Amino acid sequence: MELLCPKCGASNRDVGFSGPFCVKCRPVEIKCPKRMEFIRCSKCRRVRLKGNWVACSDEKLAQEVISKCKGEFLSGTYSFMNQEATFFVGDSEHMFPVKRSISVNIVKNICPDCVRKSGGYFEAIIQFRGKGAKISRYERLFKKMLEKKTFVTKEEQMKEGLDLYIGNSRAVVELLAELGIRARISKKLAGEKEGKRLYRTTFLVRV
Ligand SMILES: [Zn+2]
Ligand SMILES: [Zn+2]
Protein backbone atom coordinates (compact mmCIF):
# COMPACT_ATOMS: atom_id res chain seq x y z
CA MET A 1 0.00 0.00 0.00
CA GLU A 2 1.33 3.39 -0.88
CA LEU A 3 1.57 5.94 1.90
CA LEU A 4 2.01 9.62 1.28
CA CYS A 5 3.59 11.84 3.87
CA PRO A 6 0.99 14.45 4.91
CA LYS A 7 3.68 17.05 5.32
CA CYS A 8 5.89 16.78 2.24
CA GLY A 9 3.99 14.36 0.01
CA ALA A 10 6.85 11.85 -0.27
CA SER A 11 5.85 8.30 -0.98
CA ASN A 12 6.84 5.27 1.07
CA ARG A 13 8.04 3.77 -2.22
CA ASP A 14 10.85 6.34 -2.23
CA VAL A 15 11.63 7.08 1.39
CA GLY A 16 11.36 5.40 4.77
CA PHE A 17 8.31 6.01 6.94
CA SER A 18 7.80 6.30 10.65
CA GLY A 19 4.10 6.21 11.57
CA PRO A 20 2.08 8.47 9.27
CA PHE A 21 5.06 10.66 8.35
CA CYS A 22 8.12 10.12 6.24
CA VAL A 23 11.28 9.85 8.35
CA LYS A 24 12.24 13.42 7.53
CA CYS A 25 8.96 14.94 8.65
CA ARG A 26 8.15 12.91 11.71
CA PRO A 27 8.37 15.03 14.83
CA VAL A 28 11.77 14.70 16.47
CA GLU A 29 12.20 15.17 20.20
CA ILE A 30 15.48 16.87 20.98
CA LYS A 31 15.87 18.96 24.10
CA CYS A 32 18.67 21.49 24.11
CA PRO A 33 19.50 24.45 26.29
CA LYS A 34 18.65 27.73 24.56
CA ARG A 35 21.88 29.29 25.63
CA MET A 36 25.10 28.16 27.21
CA GLU A 37 28.14 29.91 28.58
CA PHE A 38 31.75 28.83 28.92
CA ILE A 39 34.71 30.58 30.49
CA ARG A 40 37.94 30.44 28.54
CA CYS A 41 41.30 31.63 29.79
CA SER A 42 42.60 34.12 27.26
CA LYS A 43 46.21 33.24 28.11
CA CYS A 44 46.34 29.45 28.05
CA ARG A 45 43.03 28.96 26.16
CA ARG A 46 41.85 26.34 28.66
CA VAL A 47 38.14 26.16 29.41
CA ARG A 48 36.48 25.73 32.79
CA LEU A 49 34.46 22.52 32.70
CA LYS A 50 32.84 21.06 35.82
CA GLY A 51 35.04 23.21 38.02
CA ASN A 52 38.34 22.31 36.32
CA TRP A 53 40.37 24.22 33.79
CA VAL A 54 41.01 21.82 30.94
CA ALA A 55 42.68 21.99 27.55
CA CYS A 56 39.80 22.20 25.14
CA SER A 57 39.81 22.50 21.36
CA ASP A 58 36.78 23.96 19.57
CA GLU A 59 35.79 20.42 18.57
CA LYS A 60 35.86 19.25 22.16
CA LEU A 61 33.85 22.27 23.25
CA ALA A 62 31.33 21.53 20.49
CA GLN A 63 30.96 18.01 21.87
CA GLU A 64 30.43 19.50 25.31
CA VAL A 65 27.53 21.52 23.86
CA ILE A 66 26.05 18.42 22.23
CA SER A 67 26.42 16.45 25.46
CA LYS A 68 24.00 18.89 27.13
CA CYS A 69 21.29 17.97 24.61
CA LYS A 70 19.00 15.01 25.07
CA GLY A 71 16.92 13.21 22.52
CA GLU A 72 16.68 10.58 19.87
CA PHE A 73 19.74 11.53 17.84
CA LEU A 74 22.67 9.36 16.87
CA SER A 75 25.27 12.08 16.87
CA GLY A 76 25.58 15.80 16.66
CA THR A 77 27.89 18.64 15.75
CA TYR A 78 27.91 22.27 16.76
CA SER A 79 28.97 25.28 14.75
CA PHE A 80 30.11 28.26 16.81
CA MET A 81 29.96 30.43 13.71
CA ASN A 82 26.30 29.68 13.01
CA GLN A 83 25.41 29.15 16.68
CA GLU A 84 23.59 26.09 15.54
CA ALA A 85 23.64 22.40 16.38
CA THR A 86 23.06 19.73 13.75
CA PHE A 87 21.80 16.39 14.99
CA PHE A 88 21.69 13.22 12.96
CA VAL A 89 18.48 11.35 13.46
CA GLY A 90 17.20 8.05 12.18
CA ASP A 91 19.05 4.81 11.71
CA SER A 92 22.05 3.77 9.67
CA GLU A 93 19.88 3.42 6.55
CA HIS A 94 17.87 6.62 6.78
CA MET A 95 19.81 9.29 8.51
CA PHE A 96 18.92 12.94 8.21
CA PRO A 97 19.99 16.17 9.87
CA VAL A 98 17.87 18.18 12.31
CA LYS A 99 19.00 21.66 13.23
CA ARG A 100 18.50 23.52 16.49
CA SER A 101 19.84 26.91 17.39
CA ILE A 102 21.77 27.19 20.64
CA SER A 103 23.53 30.38 21.51
CA VAL A 104 26.89 29.72 23.08
CA ASN A 105 28.70 32.55 24.75
CA ILE A 106 32.40 32.24 25.49
CA VAL A 107 33.48 34.55 28.28
CA LYS A 108 37.12 35.55 28.43
CA ASN A 109 38.87 35.33 31.75
CA ILE A 110 42.26 34.49 33.22
CA CYS A 111 42.55 31.17 35.03
CA PRO A 112 44.13 31.05 38.50
CA ASP A 113 47.15 29.22 37.09
CA CYS A 114 47.86 32.04 34.64
CA VAL A 115 47.39 34.60 37.39
CA ARG A 116 50.01 32.82 39.50
CA LYS A 117 52.27 32.21 36.53
CA SER A 118 52.37 35.89 35.74
CA GLY A 119 53.50 36.46 39.32
CA GLY A 120 56.34 33.97 38.98
CA TYR A 121 54.72 31.51 41.41
CA PHE A 122 56.08 27.98 41.70
CA GLU A 123 55.79 25.05 44.11
CA ALA A 124 58.29 22.66 42.62
CA ILE A 125 61.58 22.53 40.79
CA ILE A 126 62.48 19.63 38.59
CA GLN A 127 66.21 19.32 38.19
CA PHE A 128 67.24 17.23 35.23
CA ARG A 129 70.80 16.05 35.43
CA GLY A 130 72.60 13.98 32.84
CA LYS A 131 73.44 14.12 29.16
CA GLY A 132 72.30 17.16 27.20
CA ALA A 133 70.44 15.31 24.44
CA LYS A 134 68.54 13.19 26.93
CA ILE A 135 67.67 16.23 29.01
CA SER A 136 66.18 17.96 25.95
CA ARG A 137 64.01 14.91 25.31
CA TYR A 138 62.77 14.88 28.90
CA GLU A 139 62.24 18.62 28.80
CA ARG A 140 59.93 18.38 25.78
CA LEU A 141 58.01 15.44 27.25
CA PHE A 142 57.59 17.00 30.68
CA LYS A 143 56.53 20.38 29.35
CA LYS A 144 53.96 18.82 27.06
CA MET A 145 52.48 16.66 29.78
CA LEU A 146 52.62 19.21 32.59
CA GLU A 147 50.85 21.81 30.49
CA LYS A 148 47.66 19.83 30.85
CA LYS A 149 47.70 20.14 34.62
CA THR A 150 49.78 23.14 35.55
CA PHE A 151 52.37 25.54 34.12
CA VAL A 152 56.08 26.03 33.81
CA THR A 153 56.97 29.35 35.42
CA LYS A 154 60.60 29.46 34.48
CA GLU A 155 63.38 27.34 33.07
CA GLU A 156 66.99 27.70 33.87
CA GLN A 157 69.90 26.18 31.98
CA MET A 158 72.54 25.15 34.48
CA LYS A 159 76.07 23.94 33.91
CA GLU A 160 75.04 20.50 35.19
CA GLY A 161 71.61 20.31 33.59
CA LEU A 162 68.23 22.02 33.47
CA ASP A 163 65.88 23.34 36.15
CA LEU A 164 62.17 23.65 35.46
CA TYR A 165 60.05 25.71 37.86
CA ILE A 166 56.56 24.25 38.11
CA GLY A 167 53.34 25.77 39.43
CA ASN A 168 51.96 22.69 41.16
CA SER A 169 54.00 20.03 42.91
CA ARG A 170 51.27 17.38 42.98
CA ALA A 171 51.17 17.51 39.17
CA VAL A 172 54.88 16.61 39.17
CA VAL A 173 54.38 13.70 41.58
CA GLU A 174 51.56 12.37 39.41
CA LEU A 175 53.53 12.70 36.19
CA LEU A 176 56.60 10.96 37.61
CA ALA A 177 54.40 8.10 38.80
CA GLU A 178 52.69 7.93 35.41
CA LEU A 179 56.01 7.73 33.59
CA GLY A 180 57.59 5.43 36.17
CA ILE A 181 60.46 7.84 36.73
CA ARG A 182 62.29 7.95 40.04
CA ALA A 183 63.31 11.24 41.54
CA ARG A 184 65.15 12.29 44.63
CA ILE A 185 62.79 14.53 46.50
CA SER A 186 63.67 17.26 48.96
CA LYS A 187 61.37 19.75 50.61
CA LYS A 188 62.19 23.21 51.78
CA LEU A 189 60.04 25.52 53.81
CA ALA A 190 59.39 28.54 51.62
CA GLY A 191 57.28 30.62 53.95
CA GLU A 192 53.86 30.79 55.41
CA LYS A 193 50.53 31.77 53.96
CA GLU A 194 47.35 32.16 55.98
CA GLY A 195 48.80 30.12 58.83
CA LYS A 196 49.79 27.25 56.53
CA ARG A 197 53.38 26.32 55.87
CA LEU A 198 54.38 26.54 52.25
CA TYR A 199 56.90 24.06 50.96
CA ARG A 200 58.89 24.01 47.81
CA THR A 201 59.71 20.58 46.56
CA THR A 202 62.74 19.78 44.47
CA PHE A 203 62.70 16.69 42.28
CA LEU A 204 66.11 15.58 41.14
CA VAL A 205 65.82 13.41 38.04
CA ARG A 206 68.88 11.69 36.65
CA VAL A 207 68.44 10.95 32.99
ZN1 LIG B 1 7.64 14.06 4.72
ZN1 LIG C 1 45.17 30.13 31.84
Q: What does the secondary structure layout of this molecule look like, with pairings?
A:
Layout: E1 17-18, E2 21-22, E3 30-31, E4 35-41, E5 47-49, E6 52-54, H1 58-67, E7 70-71, E8 73-79, E9 84-90, E10 95-101, E11 103-109, H2 112-118, E12 124-129, H3 132-146, E13 152-158, E14 161-166, H4 169-179, E15 184-193, E16 196-206
Parallel strand pairs: 4-11, 12-16
Antiparallel strand pairs: 1-2, 3-7, 5-6, 8-9, 9-10, 12-14, 13-14, 15-16
The structure holds zinc ion (2 copies).
One zinc ion is lined by residues 5, 7-8, 10, 21-22, 24-25.
Summary, kept brief:
By secondary structure, the protein is an alpha+beta fold.
Summarize this structure as a short list of keywords or feature phrases.
single chain; alpha+beta; binds zinc ion; 207 residues; 16 strands; 2 domains; 5-stranded mixed sheet; 3-stranded antiparallel sheet
Report what the structure shows.
The protein has helices at 58-67, 112-118, 132-146, 169-179; strands at 17-18, 21-22, 30-31, 35-41, 47-49, 52-54, 70-71, 73-79, 84-90, 95-101, 103-109, 124-129, 152-158, 161-166, 184-193, 196-206. The chain is α+β, with helices and mostly antiparallel strands and 207 residues long. The strands form six sheets. It has a five-stranded mixed beta sheet. Strands 8-9-10 form a three-stranded antiparallel beta sheet. It has a two-stranded antiparallel ribbon with strand order 1-2. The longest helix is centred in the C-terminal third of the chain and has 15 residues, at 132-146. The termini are far apart. It binds zinc ion (2 copies).
